[in-house]
Amino acid sequence: MGDIPDDQVFIPYRPADGAFTVDVPEGWARTDGPDSVSFTDKLNTVGIRELTDRPQPTPETVTSGELADAVAAASHGKEGTAEKVTLPAGEAVHATYAADSAPDPVTGRTVQDDVELYVYWKGGTEVLLTLSGPHGADNVDPWAKVSSSFAWS
Questions:
Q1: What is the mean pLDDT of residues 142-146?
Q2: CATH code at position 44
Q3: How distant, in Å, are the alpha carbons of 17, 67, 107, 110, 124 from that of 103?
Q4: Which residues of 130-153 are buried (b: 16+ CB within 10 A; e: fewer)?
């Protein structure tokens, strides 16, 4: 049902500017964008987007900004919650939402995804880490591994 296997291997990802590292699942398909990268396998995705010249986020600014933008851009997006969390990299904002997955290229079908958004910030650089998978999938441990692995360089 979209669960990431317990024996999934993770490897470090570092962007070209070297600002941070984060562990991503090994062997997943990589797609590069102008300010982002994503790693996808079957029904799960890890998305990473780096933005500069950003003010320090709070749960309120993430709810009205990054989270609102993600929900608006999503098909059938539904906003969840946003809260401050403490991770090994320091304070971050963790937000949740639900959205339809991208259509399957063969069948055209979509599934409802549960999405977690982590917003890390340091000295004006903001990194959005988005973790998505099918609603109800047991991805708690893999997503905790990825979000906790984030480290500023």
A1: 97
A2: 3.40.1000.10
A3: 32, 22, 8, 5, 35
A4: bbbbbeebebeebbeebbebbbee
Residue 3 lies in a domain: no
Give this prediction's pTM.
Answer: 0.95
Q: Which residue has the tokens 């441990």?
A: 141
Which helix H or strand E contains 116, and what residues bound it?
strand 112-122
Strand order in the sheet with 10-13: 10-13, 20-25, 151-152
Residue positions counted in the chain: 153
What residue numbers bound the domain in which 23 lies? 10-152
d(CA 144, CA 139): 8
Confirm whether 24 is domain-assigned: yes
Residue 144 lies in a domain: yes
Number of structural domains in the chain: 1
Give tens-digit pLDDT for 12-65: 999 999 999 999 999 999 999 988 999 999 889 999 999 999 999 999 999 999
Instruction: Tell me if 125 is assigned to some domain.
Output: yes
